[in-house]
Each structure stands twice: as structure tokens, then as C-alpha cells.
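HUMAN:
Just now I want nothing more than another pair of eyes on a protein record. I would be glad if you read both lines and explained how they fit together. I have put the entry right below:
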Amino acid sequence: MESANKDYNPKVIWAICFILLFSVMNVTMFNIAIPSIADEFSLLHSEVSWVTTGYSIIYALGSLTYGKLADRFPLKRLITIGILTFCVGSIVGFFAQTYAMLLVGRFIQSAGASSIPALAMLIPARLVPQAQRGRALGTIASTIAFASGIGPIVGGFVTGAVSWNYLFLISLGTLLTVPLFLRWLPKEETRTGTFDLAGAALLGVGVVALLLAITNFVWWLPIASAVFFLLFGLWIRRGAKDPFIQPRLFRIEGVLTCLLITFLSGTAAFGIMIVIPTLLADVNGLSPVHVGFALFPAAMSAALLGRYGGKLADRRGNGFVVSLAQGGILTGLLLLSSVSGHGPWMIAVSMAFVSIGFSFMQASITNHVSGLLPREMIGIGMGTFTLVNFLSGSISGAVMMKALDESAGASAVNPFAAEVASGFSNVFLAMAALVLLNLWLVYRTFRGRGVDRRPAVQS
């Protein structure tokens, strides 16, 4: 591993943080704009959720794709292509006059933006010395939390002052990072290899069919999704020469369980971040600007404490911080289930627990997984980690929005805010049950490791 560390320039972490600022804002800004987009195009919750869930599908698959390509192509080339594609999608979205064109812009954006989380995880895992990696990942997690806090305010202000179209223009700021990455990333040679396009297509169709089955149920869609997932499993095990996801990745001790922990955490945290703006708009009657201000304290709390989570993982071990993070998320969800329909400040306080917990979770579990992987599998391993992270958000966002549609329909005869709020409360309780399951998995995974024990770096 030391041979890679000599190429490490600490400034590249700040370039990563700068580009993540725009990437994360691009997600949280549109979360705030969802109620306005739904009103403009007369969409149900489940229909407008494709602004975020469709984005997340491509984001997830693209993250893994860039992770695999990083094993063959120079990092600076991949990040440049990703940024330029991101900006093309932003221009398309700015000129969108229909919901279909809006989605096209978002999907092109996502195809480029997916390079950002993949390489933001991969660069520290590949270049930063193990002793400093927790701190670097904590800095990145703090940036993500800070962007999550700024994004709702910017999104609410722009949507309220002009229109959601102008949110696309903000993402053009990523162009400023291209010369930084070209200068600070190490020079690399292109390596030989193949790309499993068939495997990527099978997985992608399976995921899309699953989300369509959730948002717009047709009897054959779940069957089609199951068939494509089965074909994907058979393909990567028996048919592909260099499969899209390496089956041997899951045979590394601890990796499969960590991916499951990541999936359940993302299901709870990402889904809640999609639902809360709708709660504040529909139940509390807040404008986009005020929704942004209501979410700001939670994200800023996570930003201020997120770096400490990385330092704590370096000192006390990843298992300790992962457990602490799950406790924070669980506390926030239980509070949210109790205060739905009450004052926005109560929701803001509850969200702080979720945001801080998720920030701690991201830094510690990434640090742990990167330590489990041999060097030759870091690219695909971290790409798979990012895939699972964002797929969990896509699925949970679709499920939650569909549940809210059903709740709204059930309470249409008695359309009081308290009735609508009860639907949100049930969603939060269901997510809390998932986190309880996750706490059990965390205990089984890290039990007996000791607070100071960390996985040895393999080479």
C-alpha cells in the first residue's frame, strides 16, 4: 500500500470536498423543489418521486461503473468525463418545459454526477495512508452534511424566487474543479481489461422494473424484476469473463454483512431525507424557502460533528462509531414518529439525530470496508458499496412516496393535517424497525473485535 501513498497530494481531498458540495446540493435542492414540481405538472407523490429515485438509480449503477473503470483508466480522465456529462445534463434540465424533459436532464446529470461519489470514496481508499484515512473520510462526510444543509436553503430560495429550472444552473460550478483534479491527481497508465456491459444491463433493468413495480404496480413487473436479477446472478457467476460485480468480493469476510448494514442504513436515512420536505410542505404548510431553513440546523449539526466521527473511528475503532451512528438514526426516527404534525422546530431537532448518525455511519463503514479489501479490488469494492448505498435510497424513496399516496387516498374523506401526519408517522416507525434490525447486524459483525481493533490492510 505504501507505493500508492507516495502519489498522494493532500490538496486532492479539498478538491473532492469542493465537487461534492455541488453534487450533494444537486440532490437536496431538488428534494425541496419536489412539491413545486408536483404542483406544476399535477403529479402524485409516487410520480414526482422519479425526480429523485430515477436520478438515484443511474447514480447507483454509474457509481459502480466508474468504480470498475477506475481499475483500468486514469482517475483524472474519468472525473473529467463525469463533470462534463454532469454539466450537459444541467443545461438540458434548465431549458426543460415538460416533465419528460426535466427527467431527461436529471438522468444525464446523474450519468455524470455518479462519477463523483465513486471517486470520492475510491481516491482516499487508494491514496490516503491507512492511519490518516478515517480523518480524510470524516472530512468528506462533513462536507456532504454541510452541502445537505446548504442545499435545501438554496433550493428553497431559488424555487421560491424564480423557478426550479434555475437549480440546474448551480451545478455548472463543478467545472471549476476540472483543472484542480488534472493537476493534483497522480499520473496513471491505461490498463487492459474488459467491461461487462451485459451484466450492467441485466442489473439495471432489474432495478428499474422493481421501482416501477413499486410506484405503478402491474402484475408482471415484479416477476420481470426477479427474472432479471436471477439472470444477473447466473451471468456473473458463470457467463461473464470479467463480471460487472465480482462474486469473490462477497466471499471476503465481513464484506457482505457490511453491505447489508449499508443498505439498511441508506434505506432509513435517504428515504427520510426525501420524505421530510413533503411532510413540511403538506402538513406544516411551509413554503420551499422555509422548508430549507427548517432542514438547515440538522445538516449543519452533522457537518460540524461529521469530521469528529472520522477521528473517533481512527481512535476507538469503526465498530464503536457504526453502533453509535445506528443509535442516533434510531433516536431521530422515533422522535419523528412522535412529532409528525407538530411544529417544524420539533422535526428539525429530530432530523439532527438522523443526519449526525448517518454522517458518522458513512465515514466509519467506508473506512472499515476499505480496510477489508485487497488493493486490486478497492475500485470495484468501493463502487459496489456506493451502488448499494444509493440503491437503498432509490427503493426506500419509492416505497415511502407510494405509502404516502395510499395514506392520502385513505384520508381523503377526512382531510385534516393530523390524518395526513399519521401516514408519515407510520413510515418513520417502519424505518425505525429496520434500524433495530441493523443494530443486531452491527453487533454480530463487530462483536469481539474490541474498540481498538481494525481490519488489516491487505495488499
Remarks:
- DSSP finds 18 helices and no strands in the chain.
